[in-house]
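RECORD TYPE: inverse folding
INPUT: structure tokens
STRUCTURE:
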């Protein structure tokens, strides 16, 4: 601001010679009426049929908007009086500064705040109208740096005057210092009454990747992301905004460190309260897919209430490797509630069980003992899976592939894609298992064999304990060493050879081990006895001691 002495010195000799009235001489403040714009500035009527010109340089937005309109009355400072044909140079801003300076100086001296309107952004800060233009450095606008610097334009704010220089018309203000003074006062009041469990009003001051800091009265507390909402949230900024006013609960307060933990979700009902009533087991409800994992998907039934939809519960028919093959995040689906455990906050859901179970359909369509045809879908070390017409699979265990031929792996008997006729042995609806059998499509050859029967077979293996015989039915028989043939006609011990065909008598049948015990020796004796009987009948001769011994042995075998 220019001093009084300098303003008075602006009066020129031409003004005095022209006899200009004293009230419109240079250095005086007069009332003026706005006439309108000209390319050079704003025209005003200063009385006595004299026009004044306010230079356009006093209006940063001259082309867009002016702080007044035509007809308004304002105060101006006369800078220079020209002749009758020229405009008198006047200043609107100088008049404002002249009128406001003393008041602002008093506020500066007393350190009391003044009100002002943020006019525009300039290099390094803002211009604030506090009755005159004052400079507000950008660092002094707020306690923390502002992300949106243009958001302050046009707002009314309170500031403290930090510097004043009348010779340079220079005034510097700070909003931050005022906030810090107020913050210190509030902090002392807050700490004096702060206790855990209180509900306080606060303002979000900053956001981090793990939460937000909230000013609850001169002191900040941490609102962790896990305490913002009962819902699953990835980013805090999706739940709160900087500058937002919240009601928060004091969860923990450490007086020694002045560390404060705050909660927002704790002011809302816990989503697991009454969940058993709202979502009983067996009910079908709607939900939204929120998160995918390798083992399933999480489905939100209510805000903050999620259940697990395991990958095994996605489909009856399709073998789903990962949930992304059937679902996508945000998708609305219907699910069936399988399990509710409020204590563990566990909720299990099913997508496939919303409709009828194909296991019940299979049980109705294919009763135990019925035959069904289907392709082999895949093999495992323990069996082959066969697809039924209903679109679900049944298992043929490796032991049920053949009555007589043992297999180490099902690939020895069947191949993927092969069509099989199988018998339904069992349908376990609760366990979701179907037991099938390939061997039961044929009669069990073991059922056709009886103890005492004579069977013919081929020697496949020889050992110290005896010989393994492959029978015509595909079963295996075993002849112990003690049951081999006795000496031949020359009195030599009889020896078997691999591939040799023999006939033997059935001694025992082990259905569990699928084994038939045979005796060549007893078969031979049976043959001898029969021959002797036939011979004795023809010759009418008495039996010998050998005949008696043979009959006695036969009696022992029959249990007589």
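DESIGNED SEQUENCE:
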């Amino acid at each position: 601001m220019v001093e009084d002495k300098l303003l008075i010195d602006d009066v020129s000799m031409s003004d005095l010679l022209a006899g200009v009235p004293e009230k419109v001489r240079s250095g005086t403040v007069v009332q003026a009426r706005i006439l309108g714009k000209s390319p050079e500035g704003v025209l005003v009527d200063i009385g006595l049929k004299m026009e004044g010109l306010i230079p356009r340089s006093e209006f940063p937005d001259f082309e867009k908007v002016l702080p007044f309109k035509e007809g308004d009355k304002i105060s101006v400072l006369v800078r220079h009086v020209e002749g009758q044909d020229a405009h008198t140079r006047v200043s609107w801003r100088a008049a404002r500064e002249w009128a406001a300076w003393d008041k602002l100086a008093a506020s500066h001296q007393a350190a009391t705040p003044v009100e002002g309107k943020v006019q525009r952004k300039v290099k390094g800060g803002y211009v604030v109208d506090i009755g005159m233009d004052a400079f507000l450095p950008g660092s002094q606008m707020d306690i923390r740096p502002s992300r949106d610097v243009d958001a302050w334009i046009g707002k009314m704010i309170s500031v403290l005057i930090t510097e004043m220089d009348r010779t340079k018309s220079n005034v510097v203000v700070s909003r931050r210092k005022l906030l810090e003074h107020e913050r210190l006062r509030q902090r002392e009041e807050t700490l004096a009454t702060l206790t855990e469990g209180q509900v306080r009003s606060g303002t979000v001051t900053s956001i981090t990747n793990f939460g937000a800091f909230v000013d609850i009265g001169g002191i900040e507390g941490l609102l962790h992301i896990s305490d913002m909402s009962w819902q699953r949230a990835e980013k805090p900024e999706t739940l709160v905004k900087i500058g937002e006013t919240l009601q928060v609960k004091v969860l923990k307060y450490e007086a020694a460190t002045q560390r404060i933990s705050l909660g927002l979700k704790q002011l809302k009902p816990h989503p697991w309260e009454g969940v058993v009533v709202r979502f009983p087991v067996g009910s079908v409800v709607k939900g939204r897919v929120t998160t995918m994992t390798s083992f399933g998907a999480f489905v939100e039934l209510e805000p903050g209430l999620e259940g697990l939809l395991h990958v095994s519960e996605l489909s009856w028919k399709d073998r789903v490797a990962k949930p992304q093959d059937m679902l996508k995040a945000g998708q609305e689906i219907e699910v069936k509630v399988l399990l509710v455990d409020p204590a563990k906050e566990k909720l299990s859901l099913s997508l496939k069980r919303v409709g009828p179970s194909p296991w019940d359909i299979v049980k109705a369509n294919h009763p135990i003992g019925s035959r069904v045809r289907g392709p082999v879908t895949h093999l495992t070390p323990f069996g082959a899976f066969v697809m039924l017409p209903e679109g679900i699979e049944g298992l043929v265990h490796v032991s049920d592939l053949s009555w007589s031929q043992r297999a180490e792996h099902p690939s020895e008997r069947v191949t993927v894609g092969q069509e099989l006729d199988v018998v339904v042995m069992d349908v376990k609806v609760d366990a979701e298992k179907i037991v099938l059998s390939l061997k039961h499509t044929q009669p069990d050859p073991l059922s056709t064999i009886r103890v005492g029967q004579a069977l013919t077979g081929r020697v496949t293996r020889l050992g110290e304990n005896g010989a393994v015989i492959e029978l015509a039915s595909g079963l295996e028989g075993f002849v112990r060493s003690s049951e081999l043939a006795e000496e031949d006609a020359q009195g030599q011990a009889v020896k078997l050879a691999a591939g040799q065909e023999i006939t033997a008598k059935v001694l025992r049948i082990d259905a569990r081990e699928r084994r038939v015990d045979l005796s060549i020796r007893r078969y031979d004796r049976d043959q001898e006895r029969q021959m002797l009987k036939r011979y004795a009948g023809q010759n009418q001769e008495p039996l010998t001691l050998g005949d008696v011994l043979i009959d006695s042995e036969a009696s022992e075998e029959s249990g007589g």
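NOTES: The chain has eight helices and 30 strands.
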